[in-house]
């Protein structure tokens, strides 16, 4: 019997024994008045991003006394829908760009609960559209159709080895990672325990190194990347997606009507005054009796404190590591706090019209440096991979033709 099953059985049997003995005792004891209701637990949450807001909302629903402290003057964190500089109800998501199905079941449930419409978003950042031979991809200054990119001769000419070319002639490009990592993914039986699968040494290698070790061509390594990503992380991520039923393409892609910030707004409106903006946390003191959180209230110079039973950290670790915690966290926890990082990058998805002709432009996650994707039936103009410069389009054209394709609030 595995340990978890044993523990579950032990707890269940102990619980049954307690219930049985309790019932017998109840029949022999005199009737008493109901006990006074226990004071609800108090929880302080650090950070009013979508994680902190969701956590606070669920704790509030459970009857917990909750306070959320946010250093910034706005809530929702990286989920940010902006309209500054736009007009006529136009908006753009500058933070979290899209949601996928499968993968975001809880978010879809919240959207339904709060009556937030969900709309398809097939051209989202980095998404792969269904193959259409009218689509063109530019690699090394030359355009290729999807049919050409499934041709063995074309693929070997691009530098892929025979094994890779054979694979890509029968599978989408986004599945190329499977060719080199699937055998490792199969070794992870529990995605919540990536270090318990005999692969811990791969955390000292980059994904690019393992591709090379497995015989990947330089063309495949350039496409897959991973020079600064742990090989174990890449393998674990694939295992986690597999366990959740998420395909390599990440499935169908959606966004929230009115902007993805609609969900944080819904949480915050229900939490009300429990969310304290411009209240940065300055120190955390923990003990066996609870936690004392020091913070700077907006408009005041001196620190104030909140006593709570628990503190839940929903602050990005790159920020949290600057908050003193006493006694210190364990060495393993502090290592994670000190070393976990994240990256961000700009991505552009737009459509532009000129006076008498349509120009369709879509930036995808680059196949190779300086690659773009276009609709071949339309007039094309090659733009740099990080978006148009002012010289590429007259300012009037950018103002008058990009704007109609931005989402509108209704």
Molecular structure report:
This protein is an alpha+beta fold and 410 residues long. The chain folds into three domains: 42-78 and 261-339, 3-Layer(bba) Sandwich (FAD/NAD(P)-binding domain); 128-145 and 345-410, no CATH class; 159-249. Helix content is 31%, strand content 17%. The chain has helices spanning 3-28, 50-61, 105-113, 152-157, 162-168, 176-185, 207-213, 218-224, 231-243, 262-271, 317-320, 331-339, 395-402, and strands spanning 42-46, 65-69, 81-82, 92-93, 99-101, 118-120, 135-139, 142-145, 252-256, 275-276, 281-287, 290-296, 303-308, 310-313, 325-326, 352-353, 358-359, 361-362, 373-375. Helix 6 packs across helix 9 (231-243). It is globular and about 70 Å long. The N and C termini lie far apart (57 Å).
Low-confidence runs: 1-32, 349-406
Mean pLDDT: 77
Count the DSSP helices.
13
Taken together, the total number of domains comes to 3
CATH fold assignment of the largest domain = FAD/NAD(P)-binding domain
CATH superfamily label of the largest domain:
FAD/NAD(P)-binding domain
Question: Into which percent range does the helicity of residues fall?
Answer: 25-40%
CATH architecture of the largest domain: 3-Layer(bba) Sandwich
